[in-house]
Amino acid sequence: SKLTNLGHLEMTWRSRVHFHPLLVRILHKSRLKYYGKPEKKMDMPYQAYFEVADGSGMMSMVLWNSLCPEWYHSMKVGTVLLLAKYAIKSSYPFKTHPTPGDSQMKRFAAIEICLNVRDPPTEISIIPEEMVKPEWGLPEVKYRFITRSELDDLPHNHSCDVIGLVTFVGRAERARKREHSEDFWLYRWAHAIDGTSDQPFILELFATSQPDVFERIHPMTYLVCTQMRVMTENPSRTVYLTTSNESQIFIKGWHKGQPYTKDAKVKNFIQWMESQSEVDQIKKTVIGGYYPFPRPPDSFLKY
């Protein structure tokens, strides 16, 4: 069928009601958002953002309501979609934006693609990777992996991806979303090493929409975290990484087929791990317990 592209959509969307099908690749994926309220009677008040791209650039795509439980877990980073009967709307101005792996890619920020169960009922097809043709011109997923030795030189709030061997994982903890609120964030601390520094990555991992992964993080697993944010804790200048709205977390058993397996820094880490003694690394691992962070000063005078 006749296809359109994201660049053409941005130029013509105000003058059209029906749009030609789109062929896009998912580059980023947000956590699933629940927006239900007691006074609003909605069956499935869910929403998820994706950043999708074709040869012309990148645009946000929103999955609404009952389409979320049906499609969210099938739509992975790297998945190619054929979309028909979708809607186009002006972008929501307050949403978060991931940092693209390709800084040269054009971003169409004024509008977003809306996938709904009705008005109109969107038709979604997932194209298997082996059927994707080079002539379609779809961009590859690119990452911004850093090593531990590079971390201390990065600015506050910088976005990056990391891979490391887990040496410590703390218990799950809760923090109130707002003061006096009954809603909580669930998170845990982890340490991971990559052989480029004596210091580990200190990772604050909030529960994303991957509970199966979050609950199974354990020492001696290869941990990949994408779209992490650099946080500098003053006055100690301690640097740690925290998850963002678009972070994805992967451990052993989830790596196969992920686009990052082709990344050079991921391959370098695997080579380093193959040179290590598993018995020696196990001796350095810790699990559970209370992890006070940032650490208090070692004397009352400094405090």
UniProtKB/TrEMBL annotation:
Transmembrane segments: none annotated. InterPro entries: NA-bd_OB-fold (IPR012340), RADX (IPR040893). One of its GO terms (molecular function) is single-stranded DNA binding. Pfam families: RADX. This is RADX protein. It comes from Setophaga kirtlandii (Kirtland's warbler).
